[in-house]
Specification:
Blueprint: H1 12-27, H2 34-41, H3 55-76, H4 83-100, H5 102-108, H6 118-128, H7 130-141, H8 150-169, H9 175-195
Helix pairs in contact: 1-2, 3-5, 3-6, 4-7, 4-8, 4-9, 7-8, 8-9
InterPro entries: Homeodomain-like_sf (IPR009057), HTH-type_TetR-like_transc_reg (IPR050109), HTH_TetR (IPR001647), MT1864/Rv1816-like_C (IPR025996), Tet_transcr_reg_TetR-rel_C_sf (IPR036271)
Protein name: TetR/AcrR family transcriptional regulator
Keywords: DNA-binding, Transcription, Transcription regulation
């Protein structure tokens, strides 16, 4: 008879999150359970509860991982060039992340996050999109973007990027066509930002 391994399992929390994300990607959020993750990692059923008190805590932690990963993609990208080129490069990072991680992205922006980590998730989201908001503010300073709340302007653009990514994930558009539309979307948004001034 196979007995569950002892709790000393290396970084169990990281492994649980990794396996949870794999399940999220292949089977969806409804298939995630702490008991199943315990079986998959070979630990006792109680071991995951040392890191996540319940499934919602696990989902909140996964959402944080998603924001951290997206923030790292922004931070690692050396985005230079003209304002339109920088906006396109930033939007493309978000687009690629959304296409490659649709279930995780949905979880990240879900309103089902528990109140206990609401502040932490809000801070992670703010940090993730700080560079995009700063870029929009720089565009305003240089006269390339109309005055207004740079957060709201960034959200308008993010909504369009999300929509294109959703079209790809649903099979409505191919990635090649969506990439072309992404460039057109950015061009039209930038023209719109200018025309309103």
């Amino acid at each position: 008879m196979n007995r569950p391994r002892a709790y000393h399992h290396g970084d169990l929390r990281a492994e649980l999150l990794e396996r949870a994300e794999a399940t999220l990607r292949t089977s969806g959020v409804d298939s995630l359970t702490l008991r199943q993750l315990a079986r998959e990692t070979g630990v006792s059923h109680a071991a995951p509860n040392r890191h996540f008190r319940d499934k919602q805590a696990l989902l909140d932690a996964l959402a944080l991982v998603g924001f951290e990963r997206l923030a790292a993609l922004y931070a690692d990208a050396a985005i230079d060039g003209t304002f339109p080129e920088r906006v396109f490069a930033t939007a493309r990072i978000h687009f690629r992340f959304a296409v490659d991680n649709p279930a995780l992205l949905t979880l990240m922006f879900s309103r089902k996050n528990s109140a206990d980590v609401g502040t932490e998730l809000a801070a992670a989201m703010q940090q993730t999109f700080a560079s995009a908001i700063t870029l929009m503010a720089e565009g305003q300073s240089s006269g390339e973007v109309v005055p207004g709340d740079p957060v709201r302007l960034s959200m308008l653009l993010a909504a369009a990027v999300h929509g294109l990514a959703d079209f790809v994930v649903s099979g409505f558009l191919t990635e090649d066509v969506a990439e072309e539309l992404l460039r057109e979307t950015i061009t039209n948004f930038i023209l719109g930002f200018r025309l309103q001034s």
